[in-house]
Amino acid sequence: MSEEYSVEICRELEGRFRAANLHRPMRISHYDAGTELTYDVTGFADAEPARVKLLVDKFVGGGFAGQV
What we know:
single chain, extended, 21% strand, alpha+beta
């Protein structure tokens, strides 16, 4: 009997992984809708640092071997 995919369970597992303070980085295979990603970026022309926040609208698939 298969269970439905649960974003809440994935987030709970991610929280537990991070709380364990492991040296091995967590590998994320895809991001669910509603996930906010934050990145530090630097411009090309003026090299000013900035921070961007992106919100995942929906997961559209990883393609063949993650090449998409």
